[in-house]
Structures are given as structure tokens and as C-alpha cells.
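Write out this protein's structure.
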Amino acid sequence: MHERTYVGAIDQGTTGTRFIVFDHGGQPVANAYETHEQIYPEPGWVEHDPEEIWENTAAVIERALDDAGIDAAQLAAIGITNQRETTLVWDRESGQPVYNAIVWQDRRTTDRIEGLERDGKDDWIRETTGLEPDAYFSATKVEWLLDNADPIKLRRMRPEDVRDRAEAGELCFGTIDSWLIYKLTGEHVTDVTNASRTMLFDIHEMTWDDDLLAEFGVPEAVLPEVRPSSDDDYYGTTDAEGFLGASVPVAGALGDQQAALFGQTCFDAGDAKNTYGTGSFMLMNTGEEAVSSEHGLLTTVGFQRSGEPVQYALEGSIFITGAAIEWLEDLTLIDDPAESEALARSVDSTDGVYVVPAFTGLGAPHWDQRARGTIVGMTRGTRREHIVRATLESIAFQTRDVAEAMLEDSGIELSGLRVDGGAVKNNFLCQLQADVVGTEIVRPEVDETTALGAAYAAGLAVDYWESLEALRENWQIDREFEPASDADVDERYGRWQEAVERSLDWARDDER
């Protein structure tokens, strides 16, 4: 191996794929990004082309290495982090997907979830998986794929053969991490964090649950092997004859939010982070205890290192935050996300306007699949600046919803919140978040913490980094935002909750 070595991280997200190379200090030395198409076949349906995602992944790896003048042989390991819950099924031999990947945002299986709730199965699912039954998770997506996938893509298959081939183990089910590991190494593997998001996995026994598999008609033969997030035995290695031209261990994987928890070095019980991406996801490490939520949060696997106990987390999943800023662009209310900060600062308040960005329903703590986007409080004097500011405030208010639920469940007061993701470049939003939640907001120097977490997991597995303490020493603060006195914040938060009430249970079957 070359004297100068690095660790690479594939960050496969909802809108694009990034490859970042990190040095031993946890600093990025190479970076490449490529977007992929968002496919909307019907209202409420969201799909991605798995082949496009793989092609983009290979392309950004090659481009990042080339741009930085790094040889693939200088990579000590590769880690993967991914958009969670997004689900696909592919042919085990040919590697050909049977259908597009169904994205985590997709709502096509809402009726199936409501049927489970009518049948009184929601408590069973919640107790076993730690998840709130929702179309968001993978179980109903893979069920839909096995029942409805286009057989033409499997070449010469008869329609009734999809389930037959699944039972025979000729097909593979996985989330995007599994797909990329398969394409890189030929192995059918997932990690504990991604498995915990499928709604098919018992997070207490740490195994696929036979009763859940039977409920959703998922054959055991299609399941990936579940491995630690940081795996000393590796998931596999890249093919020296393949596109990289080197044999590199693929040794770490975490779902994107758990990767950010790891990248923010939230290794101890009580440590918390919030990631602002397409949605926002607040996670608090609860240690070796899987804390059950009574307030609409998820109990999930935080991470696991080889030979060590699983670390659990409480999670508040907010479906739309950064995507709400993109929506402002779509409406041409702003030209680019950076403009939102200046426009929000240009007015003293929202002038009574509240935006509830429930474009794909509401996640924690409400869990209403039929909630829809709502703007209330507009007058003839409402200007775009008010709507932009109200949209940013909606991000802060949704985070307070989750923070209060987390306090109720865990009994732990937030002493600070580590933040990351694209939206935290907005200083106005960070200060607003501190004011609304009433806690210190800490932004790290390296804001690509999702990719960094995947790199850390892979690097620990190959002894590139020796310990968690070495990773803590890498973590550096860029800026801290202290909560300012805001006399009317509680009143505004109360009005926000009233606006949320107006968004609930809006969508009907014929207009989803």
C-alpha cells in the first residue's frame, strides 16, 4: 500500500451521489458529485433508476480520485452511506433491477399501512422494529415490488414468476447500501442500521423477523446478510480488474442519519445531532438501551462495531425541510437557496404567516400520511419575504416538535445540538433554531458529516484510525449559536401547532 493513504466514502443521497476522500485528520481531500433523475410516475410516487445511481457512483469515484491525483490503491478502505428505506429488487445473477427503486418519500402503499392499523397490528410492529408503521419504510415497498414489478425487465419472465424467483433466491432485496455493496464486491450484504429501517427487522434480537416476513410476503431467500456498521471482516473488496483497478476493502456502511451521528462523534448516551437535508433527522444516542417512545419518535439502531454491543438511538424523522427551500426555488420565490437568508432577514417577522411543508405527509411526532402542505395567515400584504421566512421557521418549529418529544421519552435535557447538512450554511436558520429550541447549536468545521461517518466506520475496521477517541480529536467547531431571548417564541410555536392541525388528514384516495 502507498505510504500516503486515505479513506473514501460514497454518500448516496436522495437527489445525488457524492464521493469524498478523507485524510487521517478527517479532512476532505477530494470530492465529486452527480445528481440523478427524480421519477414521479403518479402523484405521491417517487422512484430512482438504480442503474443510473450505480453509473453515477462509479463516475464520481473516478472523477474525485483523478481530480486529486490519488490512485485507488491509496485507499485503505471505502465506506458507504445511503438514503435509507429506498428499496429495490434485482436479479442475483445478472444484477439487473426488476423495477426502479421505490424512494423513501413514496406514498403508494399508504392504504396497506392503514390496513395494518385497522387490523390492530401497529403495536406489534412498533414493539418489534421500533418504527411507526408507515409507507416510508421498506417492508410495504418490497411487498409492492414483488406483487407489481414489471417482469419485462427480467427478460423472458412470465408475470407470475417474480414471486417464484424470489422464493428460489434468484432475486435480491436491498436498500441502496446493499445495491452498491453488491455492485462493488458481488456480495449481498446490509448493515444493522439499514436493516433496522426496513420494518422487517427485530431490533432487540437483531435478526430478520419471521412473522414480519410472513406478513409482508418477503421470502427469506431474498434477504441480505446483516453485518456490523464497521466490519473488521469487511463486506468484500473491489475487483482489481474492475473500474477502480485496485482491490479495496468495503468495510463500513450506515444509513445516512446514523452516519451523521457517527461523523458528529456522538458516541455516548445523550449525544444528539440534527441533519438538515431533503428532510431533517434528529438522533440521540441512548447507549445500549433501546428506549421506547411514547411521543411519536422512532427507536432505531445507531451503529455497531465488530464484536461490540449495538448502540441504539431515538430518532425524530421530519420528511421535508431542505426540500421546502427547493420548493421556494420551484415557485421562483428565490433564485437559489443562499438567497433565502437575505430575504428572511429583510423582514422583522412572517407577519402572521405559517408554512407547514407536509408535501409527503408529516413524520415525527405526528405521523400523518394524509397531511399536506399548508400556508395559513396570508393577507393581501403578504410578500415573498414573509413566505420565505415562514418556510425557514417551519424547519425550526418541526425540530422543536421533535426535541420536545425526545425530552419526554428520554428524560435528558439537550445541552447542545450538533448540526450538519446543506441548510446549516444558513446562519439565520442556525440562530433561529437555537432561539426556537432554546439550546446551543454547534456547527462543525467539516459539514459533510454523513460521508465522514461512513469513512470513520470503514477506517476503524481496517485500523486506519485506532479508536473512537482519535475520531473525537478530529472533530472541530466552526461556529456556535447561543439562544437569544425571544419573548414571543412560545406564542409563535403555539400558532405553528395550530397551523399543523389544519394540515392533518387532508389527502383523499383519489387525489394522493
